[in-house]
Structure to design on (304 residues):
């Protein structure tokens, strides 16, 4: 039996460590040639070194795979295009992009600066646009391609002190769905993964109470390697019919996440006033409201 990604060429952003590294290593083991992109920045996005990306390239080559390192920033459209073009120049094509690069600048909203909001959205959401847009020109020409975007339950459900990160991650889910619709005619697929895994980004979670400390200890058991199989599957030909979906991966659990659809409706033949909405519409709708929860309250049981 051949390897799942034999002959494919994959760009993985933010692949110098954590989830991105595990995806790059597994994709290479499954037969893909890899462009390992990593800016080598701090968790907040400062600094720049190729060391992390090159280390992963060396690991891939030591295991018999093929890879090149790239240190460009996904926030720069020209750098994103250069990543894709490096794949085509070195390996002859580009088959998949994993939009994994990210930073955190957490803070409660009343303390959040414009710069912190802007920087996080630029890396996550604009970064996904820049790499996807660059790859799409090649995907259309070859009539195939796969995009895998990392979203988060912080955006899909909610979390404290992450207005910037949550906005970017929910934006990525909508972005992915739009790409799935727009690019279907060229056999290009776009899907999201919301990963649960201990990584450098997750390590910044505040642990100010015993409950928060206990939660972090549970997350530490969720290894990034558990996320890689789903990403590799979504890039493979076996997933040719899957597009526009959002999956979550937590240890050995895989979830298909819901997407917004109408839940309940009310109608008034005479139209509505603010008063009639208060008296009739809201009482009818209220039992169907979505609770205001954080991710940990929704995923309240221990991972399997």
């Amino acid at each position: 039996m051949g390897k799942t990604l034999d002959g494919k060429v994959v760009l993985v952003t933010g692949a110098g460590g954590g989830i991105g590294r595990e995806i790059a290593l597994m994709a290479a083991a499954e037969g893909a040639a890899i462009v390992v992109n990593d800016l080598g920045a701090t968790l907040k996005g400062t600094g720049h070194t190729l060391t992390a990306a090159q280390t992963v390239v060396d690991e891939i080559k030591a295991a018999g795979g093929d890879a090149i390192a790239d240190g460009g920033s996904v926030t720069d459209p020209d750098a994103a295009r250069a990543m894709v073009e490096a794949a085509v120049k070195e390996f002859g094509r580009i088959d998949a992009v994993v939009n994994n690069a990210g930073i955190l600048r957490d803070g409660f909203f009343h303390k959040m600066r414009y710069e912190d909001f802007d920087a996080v959205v630029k890396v996550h959401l604009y970064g996904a646009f820049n790499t996807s847009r660059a790859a799409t020109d090649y995907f259309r020409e070859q009539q195939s391609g796969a995009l895998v975007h990392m979203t988060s339950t912080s955006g899909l459900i909610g979390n404290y002190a992450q207005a910037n990160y949550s906005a970017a991650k929910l934006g990525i889910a909508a972005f992915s769905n739009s790409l799935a619709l727009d690019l279907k005619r060229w056999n290009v697929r776009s899907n999201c993964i919301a990963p649960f895994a201990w990584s450098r980004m997750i390590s910044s979670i505040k642990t100010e109470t015993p409950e928060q400390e206990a939660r972090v200890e549970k997350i530490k058991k969720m290894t990034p390697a558990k996320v890689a199989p789903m990403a590799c599957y979504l890039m493979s030909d076996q997933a040719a019919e899957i597009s526009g979906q959002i999956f979550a991966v937590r240890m050995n659990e895989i979830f298909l996440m819901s997407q917004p659809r109408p839940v309940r409706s009310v109608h008034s033949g005479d139209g509505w006033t603010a008063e009639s909405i208060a008296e009739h519409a809201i009482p009818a709708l209220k039992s169907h409201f979505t609770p205001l929860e954080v991710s940990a309250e929704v995923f309240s049981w221990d991972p399997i």
Summary: Residues 114-142 form the longest helix (29 residues).
